[in-house]
# Entry
Amino acid sequence: MFDVFKLTPGHTLTTLVVAGAVLNGFGLYEPLIDFAGAGASVPITSFGNSLVHGAMDGAEKHGLIGVVTGMFEITSSGISAAIIFGVIGAICFKPKG
# Structure
């Protein structure tokens, strides 16, 4: 995507997360995992899948509040790891800006 579409890493990351979320919203992510196996469960697209899956499960159980809590219930470990490793990286490498 970097060479063909000239997208920044942030745009590419967002595109992949949204693609995973949209595929799960239409019920196409599980068949994709069945077809592609581990290749479809890579962290970026799987994160979007997990967000939507958690929101839909939470909405069924707790209504509107469950949409927010369901997303964080499933993805909290990934978000926590990203924050912790980001802080460790910032301490070790002195970011500019």
Notes: The helical segments are 2-5, 9-25, 29-36, 43-62, 64-93. The mean pLDDT is 85. The two ends are 27 Å apart (CA to CA).
